[in-house]
Amino acid sequence: MPRFQSDNDARRLGEALAALRRDRALSQAEAGRRAGMTSQGWGLYETGKRSGLYRPDVQRRLTAALDATPEDLLQRQEAAVPGMASEGRAFVHAPVVPAKAGTRRMQLSNDDLAPWAASGVVVEYEPGRWPRRDQGCVIEMADGEVRVRIYEGADAEALAVRGGPGGLAAHERIDRSGIRAVSAVTARLEH
Q1: What positions does the domain HTH cro/C1-type occupy (predicted)?
Q2: Is residue 98 part of a domain?
């Protein structure tokens, strides 16, 4: 892309970023915290008033805070322009890349975490890596059940998570004595 964008282009890209954030039910403050900035800083990107939104490294940083990709941002921007249609940048015919060494993959079979991740999404997780707040996690229960949730915190007795049959609004405390392992989700792979 050209180095200097028009105000309308910057505004449209910022609106696409805002739409992605709203899709994930996040406030500007939460999105900013995830990206390591203030809500005001995040808001400047959304209004197209902060330069750098066209830089690939900035797009990766901001979209990663939303558990999205720069391609998702571009797709959202194109969808907002009347008369412009896009099939997106999905690599439909690309070979499946094997999981990185030390990671595992699991395909979700329900919509317990929608819109964060819906049925069919493959999550990649790293056993032994503890999740941070608002990050996906895979919980292996002592009885063999495996749950994918959004990590909120933990204390000596229980793990606090969101997700499950009630969707992302459902909060759950899982007794630590029933947990065999907790692993951080490091990627979501959508097809």
Answers
A1: 17-73
A2: no
